[in-house]
Amino acid sequence: MWSDPTHAEMVRAASDLCVSTVTELESGLARQRESDDAEAKRLRQKEMVKIGAQLEAMEVREMRMTNEYYRRDIEIMERDLKAMHPEHD
Length: 89
Known about the structure:
89 residues; single chain; mainly alpha
């Protein structure tokens, strides 16, 4: 003997299905948020490494330019000293 589901049973089944679906969606969204946060952190770290490398390269260029300036300044002073005291050659 087969009986038709009552209205209350149908409502309960639909409600259970909705709750289950919402729970699955919330769980999926939480996993996606964690994944997105991890990716954002990875990209920030990558960008910081890139910025650090750029700053280091800029500092090296500045030191080389400073060294070149002083090297030229020393050469000029040495040339001036030789011109002033040719007997010390």
